[in-house]
Write a structure and sequence with these properties.
By secondary structure, this protein is α/β, with parallel strands linked by helices. It folds into 2 domains: 277 residues, Arginase, Chain A; 68 residues, no CATH class. It is 31% helix and 19% strand. Strands 1, 2, 3, 4, 5, 6, 7, 8, 9 and 10 form a 10-stranded mixed sheet that branches.
Length: 364
């Protein structure tokens, strides 16, 4: 089925404990194997990095019952024309890809493959820098430049999480504001991780660049720096990401495999991120609001005007959404319910519109 694109992994720990990952997942060996829809699949975009992560991940405990999980192996090539068809085939097969790689430019392939499913894409990136430059043509180090130069019309929304001001061009912040995108600095995100969850819940695809973590947490980064998220904080964000029913692919990029000494502890960190993402995926409740059916409605009178704000709460997960009080096009219809938090609802009661919701209204 995927034999043309992938080299099946042979790193199977035969001596692993019965409760370990290695004893509870499947390993792709060609053909259709044990693949079934709605299960997670692990794909190595960089064989050295991905194999190191497997070595750290597969002795860990498996706490996810009968969740389907298959290791598809590593890519044979990494050029766009090769990667994009594979990821399209994976998602067309109703499989959920977890991608492990080095070069963050491969995020473009993750993005482009999703366009086979939807015309408009919501993206969430966890990174210490804003990977965009005002010089669209020359800056190859900014991995979103290629995307925005060629496919910006396909980006419905972009959330940048964990960016650090001392790395960020002020002109880019102004541009993000003009586009009604969200820019959440590291300090703001760390202050209350639970308030980051709605941004992750709103994304179709999510990428985490290892540079978002402190160098001490994952030394084998492409651009290490002393500031960033602690590993525990990044793991919580990954768990939130996994819980989102809307999400269709997840990638971890920026693993530097040039130093074996640094790669081993970094692989352990990435393995933990994959573990907590999988925990979130296992805990999905299927309450993404395709319709309002089953949700509890809360209506807020807005500043004495005829306009009202309608919030919806899921009794299954306790999560909140706000209905856009505006006409939406057919393409935008699936985005009309904006993920939000209980604190957003409380602010609305006090006649205060949070920035997150104001930006969302402007996008429509």
């Amino acid at each position: 089925m995927f034999d043309h694109w992938l080299e099946p992994t042979t790193k199977i720990a035969t001596s692993a404990a019965p409760h370990s990952w290695a004893k509870n997942i499947s390993f792709y060996q060609g053909g259709k194997g044990n693949l079934s829809s709605k299960q997670c699949v692990l794909i190595g975009l960089d064989a050295t990095a991905a194999d190191a992560v497997r070595e750290a991940l597969y002795p860990m405990s498996w706490a996810f019952g009968d969740l389907g999980f298959t290791d598809l192996g590593n890519l044979r090539k990494t050029n766009e024309d090769f990667v994009i068809p594979l990821l399209r085939e994976v998602m067309d097969s109703q499989l959920f890809p977890i991608l492990i790689g080095g070069n963050p430019n491969l995020f473009y392939s993750q993005f482009q493959s999703f366009l086979n499913l939807r015309d408009l894409v919501s993206i969430a990136l966890i990174d210490e820098q804003v990977p965009i430059s005002t010089d669209w043509k020359k800056s190859s180090t900014k991995y979103l430049n290629h995307l925005f130069r060629h496919r910006q019309e396909s980006v419905f929304h972009l959330s940048l999480i964990g960016a650090q001001a001392h790395f960020t061009d002020p002109a880019i912040i102004d541009w993000l504001e003009e586009q009604h995108y969200e820019y959440l600095r590291l300090g703001q995100a760390r202050e209350n991780l639970a308030e980051v969850e709605p941004q992750l819940r709103d994304a179709d695809i999510i990428a985490l660049h290892l540079d978002a973590l402190k160098q001490s947490e994952a030394p084998g980064q492409l651009n290490p720096s002393p500031s960033g998220f602690f590993l525990e904080e990044a793991a919580q964000l990954c768990r939130y990401a996994g819980m989102s029913d809307k999400l269709r692919s997840f990638g971890i990029y920026g693993v530097d495999n040039s130093s074996k000494r640094k790669l081993a502890p970094t692989a352990q960190a990435v393995a933990q991120l994959v573990w907590y993402f999988t925990e979130g995926y296992y805990q999905r409740l299927g309450d993404y609001p395709v319709t309002n059916k089953g949700l509890t409605e809360y209506v807020v009178d807005w500043k004495g005007q005829d306009e009202k704000l309608t919030f919806w709460k899921s009794p299954r997960s306790g999560r909140w959404w706000l209905q856009v009080p505006a006409k939406t096009s057919r393409k935008q219809q699936r985005h009309r319910l904006i993920p939000c938090s209980y604190s957003d609802y409380k602010k609305a009661i006090q006649q205060e519109l949070p920035d997150r919701l104001w930006n969302a209204f402007r996008r429509f």
